[in-house]
Design goal:
195 residues, alpha/beta, Rossmann fold, 9 helices, 5 strands, 53% helix, globular
């Protein structure tokens, strides 16, 4: 197996990427999360001035970033979302590759893989797909928003419903956790040659 092999785990919002990553981690593989790196970078204050300049000082009301307020801004304006991605994506990927350097095999949860054009940076990609209705319900519940607002968030991302994933590993997350684990185990066996 190639040294320093990186596999991306991606999928639309509320598709089950984190669940897949958690199961893979439970099998003993190293798993890294771009969302966790993003949270660390925001806490470090490295982006504070850039974000205030781009989105206004009131997103830091109370001394810390109001992520809900920032979310409302970027999901209401495509250009604002692109601005945020331009500020954060390069730093997130730089940190991700530093963390995975030296790992024989690592899995990286990368929510905006296709939006950022990062798929070629990885040795393989696992795409997690889930029915849109289930995703809408999960987003509405998680963020306390209605279905219309949830749909707006889904529509702001890469369209997973009609894309061609023939060259990637695909997991369908529409059944139970047992079915999900069976699919993951099959992919891990293929990737590792049944090691």
């Amino acid at each position: 197996m190639k040294q320093n092999k990186r596999i991306a785990i991606t999928g639309g919002m509320a598709s089950g990427k984190s669940t897949v990553a958690s199961i893979i981690n439970g099998k003993g593989y190293k798993v890294f999360s771009c969302d966790e790196i993003y949270a660390e970078l925001l806490e470090s204050g490295r982006f504070e001035e850039k974000l205030k300049k781009a989105f206004g000082k009131d997103i830091y009301a109370g001394g810390s970033l109001d992520r809900k307020k920032l979310g409302e801004i970027i999901y209401a304006d495509e250009e604002k979302r692109k601005t945020l991605d331009g500020i954060t994506h390069p730093e997130i990927m730089k940190e991700l590759f530093a963390k995975t350097d030296g790992c024989a095999l690592s899995f990286c949860e990368v929510p905006l893989l296709f939006e950022g054009g990062f798929e070629s940076c990885f040795d393989g990609v696992i795409v997690v797909l889930r029915d849109k209705d289930k995703r809408l319900s999960a987003i509405s519940k998680k963020y306390g928003i209605d279905k219309k607002a949830a749909e707006k968030r889904i529509n702001s991302q890469f369209n997973y419903e009609f894309a061609d994933f023939a060259k990637y590993y695909v997991i369908h997350n529409n059944a139970d956790i047992v079915n999900l684990e069976i699919q993951i185990c099959k992919i891990l066996d293929i990737m590792t040659g049944g090691e």
